[in-house]
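Every protein is a chain of amino acids, and every chain bends into a shape of its own. Below is the pair of lines this work produces for a single protein:
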Amino acid sequence: MTTLGANYQVLTSSNSVTKLIDIAALLGKSMGLALVDCFASSETIGVMKQVVDLGCCIVMANKKPLTSTMEDYDKLVSHPPL
């Protein structure tokens, strides 16, 4: 899909997590990939931490992931190294 010149995909299946991590590993640091989490759940924390480790940015539409442990909070709000 394309909007305003930007390409994006909506991933919804159980294989999506693997596909997302593969994409993040490939494009995270080279393209400035951003993961947008629109779930009203804290169940996405693990995936978000993995993509941050791969150099991606995250955008969260809810605050539940930020109310987890301090370790999770610190990881989610950290800035990737330049």
Observations:
- Helices lie at 16-31, 45-53, 70-77.
- Residues 13-77 form one domain.
- The chain is about 40% helix and 15% strand.
